[in-house]
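Reviewers of the previous submission asked for a worked example of the structure-prediction workflow described in the proposal, so we include one complete record here. The input consisted solely of the amino acid sequence. No template or homolog information was supplied to the procedure at any stage.
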Amino acid sequence: MKAFILFFILCSYPWQILLANENVQENEEPLIKIRLGLEVTPGLLQVDGDGLIDRALREIESKSPIRFKRTYLSYTRAKIEMEKGNLDLIGLTPHRHETKSFYKYARELDWNFSTNLILLCSSEKALDLKKGELVGTLSGNEEFISEIAGVDIESFREGSLESILLRVKKKRIPCVSFEEISTLKIAMSLKMDGLYFRKLGEVRGSFAIMNKKGSDKLKKTLEDVFNKVDWDNYLKGVKRLPEGKRKGKVTF
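From that input alone, the workflow returned the following structure tokens.
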């Protein structure tokens, strides 16, 4: 009798559900795990995951089989680790403005994020950048910025963006030069006033993958998902300088 009941239960069980679930699992795309090196860039990339690009990366993970293993480190260190083969993807890179040696081991995505390189000074007069005047910037960016700003690389002082802006606030150095969104976010958090800006030009941030055999497929996969993101939506409410105005006084 017990054997009959067991046989009846087994026959009655909806095995098609198990088979359907099995088919779903078989049809799921395998996860693409990517070791990602990120430089902390306030407002864009933050350790707390609240930067606008951090949020976009989470959207990419939710809509694709891509999974990022994030490591936050300096841009200089990220390049070293990629060259060693320890990272698959790094960012943000100065799109198409890296050194020749960089492009021997890295390939930038055909995707970029447009913003401005700005000069932020404690006085209007300092915007002229007289020869020998000190300019602060985020560590690892002095060579790139010196080319665009036309400033001798010896004039740069490196550090975290917050420490550099504190030095400007305390009048220890007159100016800081870096990406617009990040610089303004930190300046606002430090409650700085009496600042003047000059836009040095448009810059484009991107990501770069390790340049190795078989990287074409990963490059295309990343470009496809990055280009599907509605980046304008993430930029809503972000503090920016007035459009069409090359220089002037900063208002928060």
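The first helix runs from residue 2 to 12. We consider this example representative of the routine output the project will generate in years two and three.
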